[in-house]
Amino acid sequence: MKFFIDTANLDQIKEAQDLGVLDGVTTNPSLMAKEGITGKENIINHYKKICEIVTGDVSAEVISTDYEGIIKEGEELAKLHDQIIVKVPMIKDGVKAIKYFSDNNIKTNCTLVFSAGQALLAAKAGATYVSPFIGRLDDISTDGLNLIAEIRMIYDNYGFNTQILAASVRHTMHVIDCAKIGADVMTGPLSSIEGLLRHPLTDIGLEKFLADYKKGN
Ligand code: E4P
């Protein structure tokens, strides 16, 4: 299972990279704005900085919503760095663009996916990754994890190569549940990764081991 961090915060990206388990980064315009990164030039420079920190895939989202615009923007983004994955929204022109990118060896992440039908379409178009937003489904009383399970079944039925990137992961249990279901990738905040580390019995056990060691010295 790949771990991506879902942020544009360079300190958090570095921290996750230092842990040694990071496989990539996802960003979106909202995450960029949260870090105060606005305007095309600043956003482009920020992608370059992220690519210098991590060794894995870095999703960079297009802003255009028409076919020609998505193609132009996606080709520009893909040229920035070989780690860039062009993130395209699940809209009609987006699906057409994903097919074009796939035919032209440009990797894509189909974003804003909320149904199994959308995920099937993304795979048919040749998306490298599909991003079902599980947290946002949970927010509206719909089972986000069930969507991951449905997509896993459909992709396995037909041997689609599109990787299921569980997005909008909000906490550590989401990560564990996605791993059980068989999501290929999860993207979440640093806290969702660091939460995997913690167990009170580990802390109590370590404290006792260290105390007992001191007794003998
Ligand atoms: C995915 O790539 C998105 O950036 C992200 O996971 C959205 O998460 P949110 O619902 O917490 O904003």
Automatic annotation (TrEMBL):
CDD domains: Transaldolase_FSA. Its main location: cytoplasm. Keywords: Cytoplasm, Pentose shunt, Schiff base, Transferase. It holds the Pfam family TAL_FSA. Pathway: Carbohydrate degradation; pentose phosphate pathway; D-glyceraldehyde 3-phosphate and beta-D-fructose 6-phosphate from D-ribose 5-phosphate and D-xylulose 5-phosphate (non-oxidative stage): step 2/3. GO terms for cellular component: cytoplasm. Signal peptide: none annotated. One of its GO terms (biological process) is carbohydrate metabolic process. It is found in: Cytoplasm. The keyword Transferase applies. InterPro entries: Aldolase_TIM, TAL/FSA, Transaldolase_3B, Transaldolase_3B/F6P_aldolase, Transaldolase_AS, TSA/FSA_arc/bac. Gene3D superfamilies: Aldolase class I. Its EC number is 2.2.1.2. It catalyses: D-sedoheptulose 7-phosphate + D-glyceraldehyde 3-phosphate = D-erythrose 4-phosphate + beta-D-fructose 6-phosphate. The active site is at 87 (schiff-base intermediate with substrate). GO terms for molecular function: aldehyde-lyase activity; transaldolase activity. The keyword Transferase applies. Belongs to the transaldolase family. Type 3B subfamily. Transaldolase is important for the balance of metabolites in the pentose-phosphate pathway. This is Probable transaldolase. It comes from Aquimarina mytili. The gene is fsa.
